[in-house]
Amino acid sequence: xxxxxxxxxxxxxxxxxxxxxxxxxxxxxxxxxxxxxxxxxxxxxxxxxxxxxxxxxxxxxxxxxxxxxxxxxxxxxxxxxxx
Length: 83
Prior knowledge:
Order of helices and strands: EEEEHHHH
Strand order of the largest sheet: 1-2-3-4
Largest sheet: 4 strands, antiparallel
Oligomer: single chain
CATH superfamily: Class II Histocompatibility Antigen, M Beta Chain, Chain B, domain 1
Protein name: MHC class II antigen beta
CATH architecture: Roll
InterPro entries: MHC/Immunoglobulin, MHC_I/II-like_Ag-recog, MHC_II_a/b_N, MHC_II_b_N
Structural class: alpha+beta
Number of domains: 1
Mean pLDDT: 93
Strand content: 35-45%
Radius of gyration: 14 Å
Number of helices: 4
Domain MHC class II beta chain N-terminal: 8-82
GO cellular component, one term: MHC class II protein complex
Number of strands: 4
Keywords: Disulfide bond, Glycoprotein
Distance between the termini: 35 Å
């Protein structure tokens, strides 16, 4: 059975003062691609992931949306994510 999964995560340090957004992609339980707002671009962990990272990093509008996800996704939903 083959399985693909994408996961978006927000990490809040000191309320919304320091926020980290991560988007991770898995195939067969192996992480092959990740975006980290602290790094600012996609990183591939397999040859397949490196190709995806190179393609995604070359799209300026897509990357701008990922980089601003800290504000429109994480900070905007802070009350939903925290107990």
